[in-house]
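Incident log, structure service

09:12 report received: a user says their structure output differs between two submissions of the same chain.
09:20 pulled the input from the user's history:
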Amino acid sequence: MAERYYFRLRGPSEVVEDTEGVLATSIDVAVAEATQIIAEMQMRSELPDPDECWRIEIHNADGVVLRSLQLY
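09:34 re-ran on a clean worker, output below:
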């Protein structure tokens, strides 16, 4: 059964929340989606400064962080 996962872009002084989320059958599928988002951001030169340690947090509807991926 699919569950809705949300992506939170977190930097040292800024947080960008995903309010739509993505339906995925598992956390592994959500991680693959987040990895694709990172790759697309990199291709469009939209990634923030690598020295700032940005990451994407994958969380459920309750806000519980299930995985965290570094952007670099």
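09:41 both user submissions now match this output. Likely a transient worker issue. Closing.
09:42 reviewer note: The mean pLDDT is 92. The radius of gyration is 12 Å.
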